[in-house]
């Protein structure tokens, strides 16, 4: 039935959104995903582009990122965007490229980022629970309109509950992995 596949689609989008959100949380390790979605105002404020659209972003070693803009004239705009961002990173221009050293996190910062991860995880779990509740309401309405039998309603409810549990477990694994990444020294 459509209700289960709709729930599945919504839950998959929620998990994908969570993974995207968590990419931008610092772990003390260099990763292009840390900066690739930064919005850069360039060409006198005429254009706003994501950094990944205007430069090659590479990791150099475990603790630095190298950014090589396709157009060297925007290097100062990129630098300004990195400095303005909430990431707390300091870019250093070296000729036609920018190098960012990723400092290791102190214990206080690690705990702060773990709390941010926990908040994002809980937000996405609530979203999945809401999708599950919507699916149940749709089943109840279909049953009351005699569009499905009681047995079918019961079977679909079990199916949605099983899938919901599966997604919750997947989110917990994502959380554990991100937290161990953050705690890694």
Report on the structure:
With 185 residues, the chain is an alpha+beta fold. It has two domains: 2-23 and 106-183, Topoisomerase I, Chain A, domain 4 (Orthogonal Bundle), CATH 1.10.132.20; 32-101, Gyrase A, domain 2. Helices cover 58% and strands 16% of the residues. It has five helices and six strands; from the N terminus they run αββαββαββαα. The strands form two sheets. A four-stranded antiparallel beta sheet has the order 3-4-6-5. A hairpin with a 4-residue loop joins strand 1 and strand 2. Helix 1 runs antiparallel to helix 4, helix 1 runs parallel beside helix 5 (150-183) and helix 4 (107-144) packs antiparallel against helix 5 (150-183). The longest helix is centred in the last third of the chain and has 38 residues, at 107-144. The relative contact order is 0.17. The model has no long low-confidence stretch (mean pLDDT 89).
| Strand arrangement in the largest pleated sheet | 3-4-6-5
Give, in order, the helices and strands: HEEHEEHEEHH
Q: What's the total helix number?
A: 5
Q: Using the CA coordinates, give the radius of gyration.
A: 22 Å
From the N-terminal CA to the C-terminal CA, the straight-line distance is 48 Å
CATH architecture descriptor of the largest domain: Orthogonal Bundle
Class of the largest domain, according to the CATH hierarchy? Mainly Alpha
Unreliable segments (pLDDT under 50, ≥5 consecutive)?
none
Q: Describe the global form.
A: elongated
CATH topology of the largest domain: Topoisomerase I, Chain A, domain 4
Number of strands: 6
Q: Average pLDDT across residues?
A: 89
């Amino acid at each position: 039935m459509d209700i289960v596949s709709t729930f599945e689609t919504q839950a998959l989008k929620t998990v994908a959104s969570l993974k995207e959100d968590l990419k931008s949380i610092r772990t003390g390790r260099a990763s292009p995903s840390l900066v690739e979605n930064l919005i850069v105002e360039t060409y006198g404020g005429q254009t706003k582009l994501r950094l990944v659209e205007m430069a090659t972003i590479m990791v150099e070693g475990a603790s630095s990122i190298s950014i090589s803009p396709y157009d060297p004239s925007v290097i100062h705009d990129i630098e300004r965007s990195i400095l303005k961002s909430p990431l707390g990173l300091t870019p250093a221009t070296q000729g036609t490229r920018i190098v960012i050293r990723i400092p290791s996190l102190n214990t206080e910062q690690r705990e702060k980022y773990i709390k941010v991860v926990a908040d994002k995880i809980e937000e996405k779990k609530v979203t999945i629970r809401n999708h599950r509740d919507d699916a149940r309401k749709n089943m109840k309405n279909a049953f009351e309109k005699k569009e499905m039998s009681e047995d079918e309603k019961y079977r679909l409810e079990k199916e949605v509950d099983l899938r919901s549990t599966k997604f919750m477990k997947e989110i917990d694994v994502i959380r554990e992995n991100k937290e161990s990444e953050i705690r890694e020294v």
